[in-house]
Amino acid sequence: MRCPNCGFDFSEGYLCPKCGIDTFVFLKTQKLSIRLYNEALEAAREMDLSGAAEKLEQSLLFDKSNMQARNLLGLIYCETGRIADALKHWIISTSMVKDNNPAVGYMDFLQKNGREMEKYNDAVRMYNQALLYLNHGSDDMAIIQLKKAVDSNPDFIDAYNLLTLCCIEENNYKRAQHFIDIVLKKDKKNPKALKYDNVINSGGTSGLRKKTPRSAESKEDSSQKTVSLKKTDSAPPMPRYKRKEKQIGILEKRDIISFLLGIVCAAIAILVLMMPAMNEAKDKLIVDLQTKVDNYAGETKMTPGEVLAMRTELETLRNENKRLRSEETKQANLELLQTALSQMTDNDFETCVATLDRIDTIGFSDEDIAKYNSVKATVYPKAADSLYTKGKSEFLSNKYAEAKASLESALKYASDENFIDDAYFYLAKIAEKDEDLEQAKAYYQKVISEYPDSNQLTNAENALKNLSE
């Protein structure tokens, strides 16, 4: 049998002697991930985007390397206005498979439409601002921001749902139904839209917010409602919004946190996508100016003052280009940091530390450096443990070259783990196999002198004694 995880061939049982996984369970989870992907694909074809997204998230829980599921989830997020989440999954997808990966084309398309990306980013920013207004009781300001958000991104389903909630809170069911119809046309089984539709059809706000019972309204309130309902609008009329209770009710904290993080990811993605084009324009302008300056040899009609001004402009453009390239490098490193965060979330520690090694923190803010150090502190010990386990397994399988690389990497990321002495002992054995006796002696001596409580102490002393004879 060939292990589907590492490719090792073995003849007995289901447990791979190399990587230690249960091949039966591994294959079952892969098949389950594929089945969930197929169900999600069918749901997406029927315009059940919420159900498809839920199944794809489950599919990735069973197999995070399912590229098709990750790409489709990105497309669904893009279709529902969550551009930052879509980019996150496409970036992870391309980091796993670069050749013949549709995600590359998706990101290229967004790169060529920089103005659309700015509008999507503005929509997320206005949605987050609306949430803040709602927290502070400014319903009318929140509605203005939400209307601008859906104007910037007509596919922004979360903004439509929040507008629906605001309308229901003010008993403007006709307007709420208008927004519900928009959502259900794009996502026919959206759970929030269906819930709001049920509230409207039941004739009340049960399950949303608990309202204070009131007596008959005053004439002043009645007149205000009458005037408000006469206002014209692009859709069914909406009354003037006044805050009745300082509550968020149906809003969930995770939605707020998700979109606050989303605006940061979208801003980084926009900068990374647009910066190369800006630099190319600067490079072309510099080359043109340099050519003009070089061609000046006295036979032109340019005065020395004009040449000096041109040289000054050239130097200014060079400095600006240098600054832009520095900013481009910084944004690329910030994108790598976001990728490392995603890899850490997926428990892909070995890939995560490799990504961290590529990051240059020059130009990072104190907050970004703190985030970088936090990821390192979390991931390094786990990556070291994973690499040591892998190296030991390779050593026991007589794959000494692979074991050497894994064990050396484990020591690179280890700090005070209890396997360090064993790693040095195995490296000493590998050095003996390679007939590098001096290196083997150095490793044995390190175990003896620095780890006197090691379980390999006696073995190291005996091995060093044999090599010295």
From TrEMBL:
Biased composition annotated in UniProt, kind: Basic and acidic residues: 214-223
Designated name of the protein: Lipoprotein NlpI
Gene3D superfamilies: Tetratricopeptide repeat domain
InterPro entries referenced in this protein's UniProt entry, alphabetically: CellSynth/LPSAsmb/PSIAsmb, TPR-like_helical_dom_sf, TPR_rpt
TPR repeat ranges, renumbered to this chain: 421-454
Keywords, comma-separated and alphabetical: Coiled coil, Lipoprotein, Membrane, Repeat, TPR repeat, Transmembrane, Transmembrane helix
Transmembrane segments: 256-275
Region (Disordered): 196-241
Domain of life: Bacteria
Any coiled-coil regions, as ranges: 307-337
